[in-house]
Amino acid sequence: MDTVTVSALAAQAEESVREQWIDVRSATEFAAGHLPGAVNIPMDEIEARLHDLSPNLPIVLVCKSGGRARMVAGLLEPCRKDVRVLVGGTDAWNKAGLPVVLSRRTRWSLERQVRLAAGVLVLAGTLLAATMNTDWLVLTGFVGLGLMFAGLTDLCPMAVLLGAMPWNHTKQCTPGAPPKEERCCM
């Protein structure tokens, strides 16, 4: 698997070398900050979206630190030989002080929110069971059951619930309207 360093990729961008930069993180992670010109095709969608990849342009895969991009490169290897992975991902890009495209309102990825909520519920249930009443263990069991269900079915009711929360909604720009700070958040 070929790799490319942040400095080499930035130099190629300045020279207008034509490549397809594919960010394989979730849509929320992508919105929180990505390389200018990168296209978001989340890792779990890559095989279904092979036709979205230009057959005439080499591909550079990007993620947060490089791990997911390497996994996607392995998936693409049988059908594409012109794939490279950005070493260090967007973390390295940010550390180098290079420009990123940010949503004005950055937020945690939905996956991270689910992990936090599940952890808080399990911790609370455990502490309440230890200090008050063992009936609170039902809460931890319920969370565990929910996580198992999500893993088996790829459906996560907690993610649906958290996705409906106000902090996970973006304001939409009105087409044709002049961009205003309070109306447009992308």
Keywords:
single chain, alpha/beta, Oxidized Rhodanese, domain 1, 2 domains, five-stranded parallel beta sheet, 7 helices, disordered C terminus
Describe what this molecule looks like in 3D.
The two termini are 34 Å apart. The protein contains seven helices and five strands. The protein is elongated, with a radius of gyration of 20 Å. The protein has two domains: 94 residues, Oxidized Rhodanese, domain 1; 59 residues. Helix 3 links the parallel strand 4 and strand 5. The chain has 186 residues and is α/β, with parallel strands linked by helices. Helix 5 crosses helix 7. Helices cover 42% and strands 9% of the residues. The protein has a five-stranded parallel sheet.
How would you summarize the topology of this molecule?
Blueprint: E1 2-4, H1 6-14, E2 20-23, H2 27-32, E3 39-40, E4 59-62, H3 67-76, E5 83-86, H4 89-95, H5 110-131, H6 137-153, H7 157-163
Parallel strand pairs: 1-5, 2-3, 2-4, 4-5
Helix pairs in contact: 5-6, 5-7
Note the gap between the termini.
Answer: 34 Å
Instruction: Assign an overall shape.
Output: elongated
Count structural domains.
2
* CATH T-level fold name of the largest domain: Oxidized Rhodanese, domain 1
Tally of DSSP β-strands: 5
Query: Rg, please?
Result: 20 Å
Physical arrangement of strands within the biggest beta sheet = 1-5-4-2-3
Number of helices, counting only DSSP H or I runs of 4 residues or more: 7
Taking all residues together, what is the mean pLDDT?
Answer: 85
Using the 3D structure, state the CATH architecture of the largest domain: 3-Layer(aba) Sandwich
CATH homologous superfamily label of the largest domain:
Rhodanese-like domain
